[in-house]
Amino acid sequence: MLRQSLLGTTALAAALFMTFAQANAFDESKYPDLKGQWVRARVPGVAGQPGYDPTKNQGLAQQAPLKPEFQAVLEANIKEQATGGQGGDPTYACISPGMPRIMNPYGEMEIVITPDTTHILLEHIHDSRRIFTDGRAWPTGYTEATYRGYSIGKWLDTDGDGRFDTLEVETRNFKGPRAFDAAGIPLHPDNETVVMERIHWDKSKPDALTDVITTIDHALTRPWTVTKSYLRAHLAQPDWFEEVCAEGNNHIGIAGQNYFMSGDGRLMPAKKDQPAPDLRYFKEPPK
Question: pTM, whole model, 2 decimals?
Answer without folding.
Answer: 0.85
